[in-house]
C-alpha cells in the first residue's frame, strides 16, 4: 500500500512541469489571474468550481482545496482547453491542455 501511495505522489509531481513566470503567461491567463486575485467578476459560471484533481496531476490535497478558472482561448467556440487552478494555500497552476499537464505560476 505504501508503494502505491509513493507512486501516486511521484505521478502527481511529474505532471507539474517546470514553473512559468506570471509575466510569461499568455495575456488572457494574466487577466484571469488578476480576476482570481480580485475575486472576480468571472465570465463563466464554472469559474471557482472545485477542481477534484482526480488524475492526481497536482500535489495531493483534501477535496475542495483546489478551484478552477477558465482562461479565454482565442478562436475557441467553447471554454477552450486553458485553465488556472488555484490552491487554498495561495499557489496557482496553469494548464494549456485541459489538465493533462500543469506549470506552477511564479511571480
Can you walk me through this structure?
By secondary structure, the protein is α+β, with helices and mostly antiparallel strands. It has a single domain, classed as Microbial ribonucleases (Nuclear Transport Factor 2, Chain: A, Roll). The chain has helices spanning 2-15, 27-37, and strands spanning 16-21, 49-51, 66-70, 83-87, 92-95, 102-106. The chain has a 6-stranded mixed beta sheet with strand order 1-6-5-4-3-2.
Whole-number count of domains: 1
Task: Give the structural class.
Answer: alpha+beta
> What pattern of helices and strands is seen along the backbone?
HEHEEEEE
At the fourth level of CATH, the homologous superfamily is: Microbial ribonucleases
Proportion of beta-strand residues: 25-35%
Kindly state the percentage of residues in helix: 10-25%
Most strands sheet: 6 strands, mixed
Question: What's the CATH class, please?
Answer: Alpha Beta
CATH topology: Nuclear Transport Factor 2, Chain: A
Number of helices: 2
Mean pLDDT value:
89
Q: Which architecture would the CATH scheme give at its second level?
A: Roll
Catalogue the unreliable spans: none
Q: What overall geometry do the principal axes of the alpha carbons give?
A: globular
Backbone CA Rg: 14 Å
Sheet with most strands: strand arrangement: 1-6-5-4-3-2
Strands, total number: 6
Tell me the distance between the termini: 38 Å
Amino acid at each position: 500500500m505504501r508503494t502505491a501511495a509513493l507512486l501516486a505522489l511521484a505521478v502527481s509531481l511529474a505532471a507539474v512541469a517546470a514553473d512559468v513566470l506570471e509575466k510569461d503567461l499568455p495575456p488572457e491567463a494574466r487577466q484571469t489571474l488578476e480576476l482570481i486575485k480580485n475575486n472576480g467578476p468571472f465570465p463563466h459560471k464554472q469559474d471557482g468550481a472545485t477542481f477534484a484533481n482526480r488524475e492526481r496531476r497536482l500535489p495531493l490535497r483534501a477535496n475542495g482545496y483546489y478551484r478552477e478558472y477558465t482562461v479565454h482561448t482565442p478562436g475557441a467556440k467553447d471554454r477552450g482547453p486553458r485553465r488556472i487552478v488555484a490552491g487554498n494555500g495561495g499557489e496557482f497552476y496553469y494548464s494549456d491542455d485541459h489538465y493533462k499537464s500543469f506549470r506552477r505560476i511564479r511571480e
